[in-house]
Write a structure and sequence with these properties.
Pfam families: Indigoidine_A (PF04227). By secondary structure, this protein is an alpha/beta fold. It contains 13 helices and 10 strands. It has a single domain, classed as Indigoidine synthase fold (3-Layer(aba) Sandwich), CATH 3.40.1790. Helix 3 packs antiparallel against helix 4.
Length: 310
């Protein structure tokens, strides 16, 4: 079912009508993933990079109980500056809308909404996945299942968040048949660190190669999304292994305070930002912007291929 017309920002609606390139962007990074004022600065920079590459940004959220696909600058500012914004996965959308809430959409919700609206390219920071200790807690992100359902979509990210069990997350993606491709890397990125030591079978070297791969994936009708994994820029990357020491203490504190579920990820990321002296925050901001730019370049190439009939 397509999105209602009133959910679409006019610029996004016009681009979709003419078959132009559009890139979906999530809003949890604005409300929950980054501190103020960095959150608003990064959201604006990501949109600017999408425009600079020739595509239209469509940041997705729920504003006052209304689904919004493409936000005004005032709406970005509203999400960035308010406390109490709901963190909404796919299952939380109806409660947010019925209660008239503001809600920032996670990867699972953003990807579902984007696909429903006919936007097949999505950029984010790090994916959710299998949490450490999931064998006991069963804490596994809905992102994984939504990626398996998102037939023909492209998701650009920097791997999965470092707080997760990265080998188990990569294995879970493989089990669900989700194609993971490295962008100029043969290694699964580790969010704010450039590599995890986990090899990837497939890689591409350019936006054009990525577009050709996605087009082939779509033409075959293979289920699931294509995950294009781009390492954080080298200049802003956190040194390998540095995150692990801070994460151990943050996990222990979370257990003591019984912080679980949707609250766990922002808590852990906040503690890691504090413990790294700002390094992880700088890296997180840089990779979000770079992923938006790459997604836009691939979206433009895909649009050009469709126009030429290739």
């Amino acid at each position: 079912m397509p999105a209602r017309d009133d959910a679409l920002h006019p610029e996004v609606a016009e681009a979709l009508e003419r078959g132009g390139p559009v890139v979906a962007l999530e809003s949890t990074l604005i409300a929950h993933g980054l501190p103020r004022p960095t959150n608003l600065e990064v959201a604006r920079r990501a949109e600017q990079e999408v425009r600079a590459a020739g595509a239209v940004p469509a940041t997705i959220a729920v504003i006052g109980g209304r689904l919004r696909i493409g936000l005004s600058d005032a709406e970005l500012d509203r999400l960035a500056g308010r406390d109490g914004v709901l963190k909404a996965g796919r299952r939380d959308l109806a409660p947010a809308i019925s209660a008239g809430r503001d809600a920032a959409t996670t990867v699972s919700a953003t990807l579902w909404i984007a696909r429903r609206a006919g936007i097949p390219v999505f950029a984010t920071g790090g994916l959710g996945g299998v949490h450490r200790g999931a064998a006991e807690s069963f804490d596994i992100s809905t992102d994984l299942d939504e990626l398996a359902r998102a037939d023909g979509c492209l998701v650009v990210c920097s791997g999965a968040k470092t707080i997760l069990d990265l080998p188990a997350t990569l294995e879970a993606l493989e089990t669900r048949g989700v194609l993971v491709v490295g962008y100029r890397t043969g290694e699964w990125p580790a969010f704010t660190e450039r590599g995890s030591g986990l090899p990837l079978e497939h890689r591409v070297e350019s936006a054009e190669q990525a577009a050709a791969l996605v087009a082939a994936h779509r033409s075959l009708g293979v289920p699931g999304a294509v995950v294009l994994a781009q390492p954080v820029p080298e200049a802003e990357a956190v040194a390998a292994g540095r995150m692990e020491s801070g994460l151990s203490s943050a996990l222990a504190e979370a257990r003591r305070r019984k912080i679980v579920g949707k609250a766990l990820t922002p808590f852990l990321l906040g503690r890691i930002h504090e413990g790294s002296g700002g390094e992880s925050l700088t890296a997180n901001a840089a990779l979000i912007v770079e992923n938006a730019a790459l997604a836009a370049r691939v979206a433009v190439r895909l649009s050009e291929r469709e126009e030429s009939g290739r």
